[in-house]
Structures are given as C-alpha cells and as structure tokens.
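Researcher: Sequence of Amidohydrolase follows. Predict its structure.
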Amino acid sequence: MKVYTLALGLGGAALLAGSARSAAPAKTYDLVISHVGVVDVVTGQVLPDQTVAVAGGKIVQVGPAARARYAARQTIDGTGRYLMPGLWDMHVHFRGGDSLAAANKKSLALYLVHGITTVRDCGGDLTQRIFAWRRAEDAGTLAGPRIFTSGPKIDGPAAYWPGSLEVETPNQVSQALDSLQRLKVDFVKIYDSKISPEAYLNTITQAEARGMKTTGHMPYSVTLGDAVSRGLDATEHLYYVFKACSSKEDSLTAVVRASLKTPKPLGLFAMLPAVYDTYSPAAAARIFQAMATHHTAAVPTLAIGKTLAELGENDHAHDSLRAYIDPKIQATYARRLASARLQPAATRAFTQKLEAKFMTLVPQMQAAGVVLLAGSDSGAFNSFMYPGSSLQDELTLLVQAGLTPAQALRAATLNGARFMGVADRSGTIAVGKDADLLLLNANPLANINNVKQIAAVVARGKAYQRADLNRMLAAVKNK
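Model: Prediction complete. Tokens:
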C-alpha cells in the first residue's frame, strides 16, 4: 500500500505530496475527517474534498482525499461539510467572586458548544480559578475553550470592579505590573472608571518596556493618539476610537481634564453627543492610519452595543438560551435592565443612532489596515450576552457593517492568534497547528450565519459531535 504525506501551507496556497513508500504501514491517527471542504481564512477560499488527520492534539496531515491513506481511531465523514479553525472570542469576562465561580465555570461548555475553542478573558476577580480551569483542560478532565487572561484589571483609586489593581503613582503602576508578571498573565487590561490620564499613559509605557501587551478602555481625559504612540496594543469597544474621530478631540479632552478637579467629573457618556456632532471623516482617517501604523487593534463588540441599545424595548424574557445561564449570572442583569427601563425616549434614540454610527467605522478601519478582533463582551453583569452565541451574533453584525464573511472569520480566528502571539500554532488549518476545529454543515464564506450550523467541534484534538454537544448543553441546563 502506498502512503502519501501531505502538508498545507499557512494560506492554503500549496499542497505538497510526499514520496510514496511501498509496503509501508499506514499510521494510525486519533481522528480523521475525510472528504471535507477546508475553509482557508487567509484567502477566503474553500479547498474541496480534503482529508485532515489529527494525532496528539495536533493537525498532522492535510491534503486531497483521493491521495489519503490512513487508519484512524475515529473517523468523521465530511462530505458536504466545511472545516474551519475554531472560533476565538477576544473579549469575555469571568468574574463575580467566589459566589459566582461555579456559575462562571458552566459557561465553558457554552463556548465550546457554539464553536468557540479559544477565549480572551479581559479582566475580573477569578484569576486563580481560571488558572485551575486551564490546568484541568490541559489534563483532559474539563471540556472548554483555551483561555488567555489579563488577570485583575488596572484602574485608579476606588475602582468600580472588585479585584482591580488601583494605581495613581508611577511606583504603584510598577508594583501592579510586578504582581501581574508574578501571576504570569497573558496581557494587561486597563480600565477607565477612576484612572488618571497620567497613570493610564504611564501604565502603557511601563508595560511596553517590560514586553507586556496592553489593551483596554480609555479615559476620555486621554487622546487615543497619545495611547497609540505609547504602544497601546488594542482598544476595546468603539467609544474611544469614536472620540478620536472628532474634529474637536483636543478641546473635548481638555474639557474632560478640567472637570476632573470638580465634584462631578465628566465621563464618556456625558461627552458622546458632542463627539457625535463633531465627527470628522478626515480625523477618522488620521486615527485609523495611526492605529494601522502602530499595530493597535480594535475590538468593536457590536453585539453588546446593539443589545444594550435595544434593552428598553426587549427584556429578553423569552430567550431560549436563558435556560442555560445560571440563575446567579442572570441576577447580575437586573441593574442594567432596570436602568434601561428608566431611560428617556430621547436617550434610547441617541444610543441607537450612535450604535449605527459605530457600524460605519468597522469597514473604514478594515480598509485602513487596522487589525479587527471579534469579541462579544459576554460574562456576568453583561446583560443577555450569552456565552458562545453572542460571538456568532458579533460575526453577523461585522458582516452587516460591511466586512466580507472571510474578513469576519479572520477577525474571529487568525487575527486573534496573531494578536496573542500564537499564530504559529493556531488560527488556520495547517500541519503542526493545534487541532481546534469547527465542522459546519454549510459554507460560512457564503453566509456568515452558517457558523451556527455546527456538526462537530474539535478541541485539543478531541471531537465532540452533535450528540456530544447536545449532552454538554443538557448538563448545564438549569434544573
């Protein structure tokens, strides 16, 4: 029997057939998916009728099915199906302290069931629990996505979120970064509830000097251009990008800075109408070019913006996915829901107008070369952003905003891997990459909503077929 060794390059541009060795026995793989269309997220093309083999949690063979010779412990017929890299959710939260630790842990299954094989935790107070979950996942005793985490957020004195590292002076910034390095976090998340402009910029400068990746919110007392030039690696949400699109950004920033000395400092929500009214295409083009030049990524989180903007009209009482959200997590939604019900009609109308404006920024950033990362902002206290499904919603909105399905898929796969510095082992389907895969019943390049048509999820080389995923859902359903 002839055995062929096949390899797929990063972009899927070339398939290389190895030499035939007569009478050589076929290697036994852990998993083989045969006759499947492989989605190349780099080129936006489908490689038809491929066979993908997995061993030891890695992709070890990719090539035309007609040439494949193999023995496998498990096989999946991919005929008529599409195989793509597992999705990355680049903005989630695990938080709420010990009382919500078990409820947070249940969300791991929800991510996996919806095709998310990697998440980036953007700050909370469950760091040691997250590390324990990662160890259990690595040991094969817990099913869930790979987790990158920032650990505790950095913020100013009297920070809003429990567990935050509160900084004001350069020495306090240094101590906070020391503690994060001891924890061996994957990046630094900066928050904006109380941090001063000086401490914010100093955190970026010190973290960059240590080789630590920085990302986060941004106080309106700082310009995005200053943060970008200091080395900010990513900006979360679009409130901060939008301010930099104002023709009056400098004067608006000065107004916010002056208000810091008063009993009632101005925050971003107070300033957004003025920012909206002074939007400038020329200013937008300048900041997008600066972000692209300095490699500052953006995480639009369109889905949570849409959900919150519509909360006064849709209380989500009949959402089917509520059945899988722990009641303790659901209880954290009450504050935002009550606030939305009290909002004047004019406030709701402006919020919806603002979110529509945010949608227009996405294709402009893409065209300018800004790296876009798909993130949902799901987690405790973020109302009705259901783990897993909300990232699927984010992809739909990115396409509605003007991205192609291929661009949206890159934002949720390869871009995340590149941002976290692991593109050598994740983000595409290629020999040597981690076997974190999503098998779909329809082509996501033809319709982005086909990411919901899940036949199987492969995580760390283990295949969870539809029946397995249904059992995982049943296990976390509220009794």
